[in-house]
Write a structure and sequence with these properties.
Number of helices: 12
Shape: globular
Number of strands: 8
Strand content: 5-15%
Strand order of the largest sheet: 7-6-5-4-3-2-1-8
Helix content: 40-55%
Largest sheet: 8 strands, parallel
Structural class: alpha/beta
């Protein structure tokens, strides 16, 4: 059975842009190094937080090439490969270059709202097309359809040689708990929502694919590690300190909130690609004030 260690804090990496709208590769490489040096356990590249739908094919290829070269195998790199066309995902998996990539994250097909059987067959085709570890990604708020616990477990059991985890961002604690309680031993559950990572780890999740970790990797990874070690009291203290920021980062959507936070910390320009736009000025000011209250250098 293939495996990539997914315990701890993965970071759904943003894509920095310059004022002219081009990808800021210099800022990207600095941000990657910041992650590697400050407690991030693995990177998730070209996911939702990266504004991937707005990137051209050649930009995606160059982003992956540079990140792989920068990381130099120091931590795992997980690549987002998703589409609402199963044939397109399978084609990418069969044809693209995955050197330096340690696993694949693929979201439930969006917009066309497949049935549970359709979701199962979509992932079956993906599992049969790649030897890389595959992380399922359930985020019904974005896709328009929820992958049920039953479907998740069916896929996990039938394709255990490839399917290693699910990133669960349904926000449905009962559903997520059901997956954790009934999953096969090889299969892990990863939080897809920073704000409920602490309670999900207490239930048996192995960590998070984080957004806030872009800007505060050392602090948030410490919370995750404390919770995973069973030190819930100290983990809860950190979790509670971040609650205000968790909420603010989602007010104007993702990644607008975390890009505002990263800009305040001096890592990137506060630029997004349409149809996404930066946070509203009042939200940005609240993020600034919340960061000041945390007293993080």
């Amino acid at each position: 059975m293939i495996h990539t260690d997914l315990k701890g804090m993965g970071v759904a990496l943003v894509t920095p842009f310059r004022e002219d709208g081009s990808v800021d590769f210099e800022a990207l490489q600095k941000l990657v190094e910041y992650q590697v040096q400050n407690g991030t356990d693995y990177l998730v590249v070209l996911g939702t937080t990266a504004e991937t739908p707005t990137l051209a094919g050649e930009e995606k290829a160059e982003i992956v090439r540079r990140i792989v070269a920068q990381v130099r195998r120091r931590i795992p790199v997980i690549l987002g490969v998703s589409s609402n066309c199963t044939r397109e995902v399978v084609g990418k998996l069969e044809q693209d270059d995955f050197r330096g990539i340690d696993g694949i994250l693929s979201v439930v097909p969006y917009y066309n709202k497949p049935s549970q059987e359709g979701i199962y067959r979509h992932y079956r085709a993906i599992a049969e097309a790649t030897p890389l570890p595959l992380i399922l990604y359930n985020v019904p708020g974005r896709t328009g359809v929820n992958m049920t616990a039953e479907t998740t477990l069916r896929i996990a059991r039938e394709f255990e040689q490839v399917v290693v985890a699910v990133k669960e961002a349904s926000g449905n604690i009962v559903q997520i708990d059901g997956i954790i309680r009934n999953k096969p031993p090889h299969f892990e559950v990863i939080s897809g929502d920073d704000s409920i990572t602490f309670p999900l780890i207490a239930l048996g999740a192995v960590g998070v694919i984080s957004v806030i970790g872009n800007a505060l990797p050392a602090e948030f990874s410490r919370m995750v590690r404390l919770a995973l070690s069973g030190d819930y009291e100290n983990a809860r203290v950190i979790h509670s300190r971040f609650i205000e920021l968790f909420e603010l980062l989602t007010v104007d959507g993702n990644p607008a909130g975390v890009k505002s936070l990263l800009h305040l910390r001096g890592y990137i320009e506060n630029r997004l690609r349409l149809p996404l736009v930066p946070t509203r000025i009042p939200t940005g000011e609240k993020i600034r004030e919340a960061l000041q209250r945390l007293s993080i250098q």
